[in-house]
Design brief:
mainly alpha; Growth Hormone, Chain: A; 16 helices
Length: 382
């Protein structure tokens, strides 16, 4: 069996890197109060550490990728992990709020380019029939970060102090950087492209449509997932202490769905885009209908986890398909699109939960948002 006919170790190394990066992004939410108390700032100011990271992904990621396109991909991945390592070490060692903001921006700058370029590298480590699964395998690191990294990091922060999770992430970054250096083969830079030529890929309506599909479809995911706590407490009637294991169950669904999505994208990309988007809408409607019933809600939320993250590999593959002249930039732009969708879903979910509609309306509004994405996919894939 050749390297191109199975999932190689190198893709698992990229999975570990994605896990470290995903943990660094989201763990701050679990220790936000501790950070605020330790730095003597408000929780709102501490929340700006999340905003700074997200802004760096959305704005800085594509710009950095444009500059990095001239270099070999292995060299770029090593450099990005080095910057990520330094950023998290700075986060762990400082108690200065301004420096923390800088370190979070530094870490955020690495995420989009690493996921985007890493996805291209992953597809080139396998045969064409496994490209979707390779992307799904890499992004499994992000799902595992939500299942294991964030809860584990929050526990470590509570026991050993808020800086401890970032020291752990720094150690993971060092291990991953060494593994990339040793195991991932050199992949040379593409034929030199001008800045104008790279940006020119966004003149392709199919690529723009792919990015719009990500924003519209994924906004529904975050509208529910970002506000699953009030739905679980106010509608399903769970105690707050139950939220951790509910999130773990949903997170397991994310892992399963990511795997299904990769396989289905390899089989038929169009069917995967349409089918999994429809499945996510149906799962959200089901969550809304059974939300008042404890265990039915948990089962439906698990199904939502599967259906939602099964969309990730097909969405990423469609973007890379139409961003052929600058695949790294296109893939990085899609990471930005995911984060724009996260922000949009967060805003819409907040408006709904604070309105007279209340938490019980969250799953249905999320389904409606995702339905706009499905309609757009159908209009493009006819």
């Amino acid at each position: 069996m050749t390297l191109k006919s199975r999932m190689p170790l190198q893709v698992w190394i990229l999975t570990l890197a994605a896990f470290a990066i995903g943990t660094a992004e989201f763990v701050i939410a679990g220790i936000l109060t501790q950070v605020a108390e330790a730095l003597d700032i408000s929780e709102g100011q501490a929340g700006h550490l999340i905003t700074a990271y997200a802004a760096a992904i959305v704005i800085g990621g594509p710009i950095l990728t444009l500059w990095l396109a001239r270099y070999g991909k292995r060299r770029v991945l090593i450099g990005l992990m080095a910057l990520f390592l330094v950023a998290n070490l700075l986060t762990a060692l400082t108690d200065n709020y301004a420096l923390l903001l800088v370190s979070r921006v530094m870490a955020g700058l690495t995420q989009g380019p690493f996921y985007g370029i890493g996805a291209v590298v992953a597809t080139r480590l396998v045969g064409r029939e496994l490209e979707g699964q390779a992307i799904g395998q890499m992004f499994a690191g992000l799902t595992l970060a939500n299942v294991l990294g964030v809860p584990g990091g929050a526990w470590v922060g509570q026991v050993y102090g808020w800086q401890a999770p970032f020291l752990a992430v720094t150690a993971l970054a060092a291990i991953t950087m060494l593994a990339i250096t040793i195991a991932i083969p050199r992949q040379g830079a593409e034929a030199p492209k001008s800045l104008r030529e790279q940006i020119g890929v966004f003149g392709d309506r199919n690529l723009l449509a792919s990015l719009a599909i990500t924003v519209l479809g994924w906004a529904g995911f975050m509208t529910f997932y970002g506000y699953i706590a009030p739905v679980a407490e106010q509608v399903a009637g769970f105690d707050r202490s139950a939220l951790t294991w509910i999130l773990v169950i949903v997170g397991l669904g994310l892992v399963v769905g990511n795997n299904f999505g990769g396989k289905s994208a390899d089989s038929n990309l169009r069917s995967a885009l349409l089918g999994w988007s429809a499945a996510m809408i149906l799962s959200l409607v089901l969550v809304g209908l059974v939300a008042p019933y404890h265990w039915a809600f948990v089962a439906a939320a698990f199904g939502f986890g599967i259906a939602s993250f099964a969309n990730v590999p097909p969405m990423q593959m469609r973007v890379m398909k139409f961003g052929g002249r600058a695949p790294e930039l296109a893939a990085t732009a899609n990471i930005s699109a995911f984060n724009v969708a996260n922000a949009l879903g967060g805003v819409i979910g907040g408006l709904v939960v604070d309105s007279d509609l209340g938490a019980q309306a969250i799953p249905f509004v999320a389904a409606a948002l995702s339905a706009t994405g499905l309609a757009f996919i159908y209009s493009q894939e006819r």
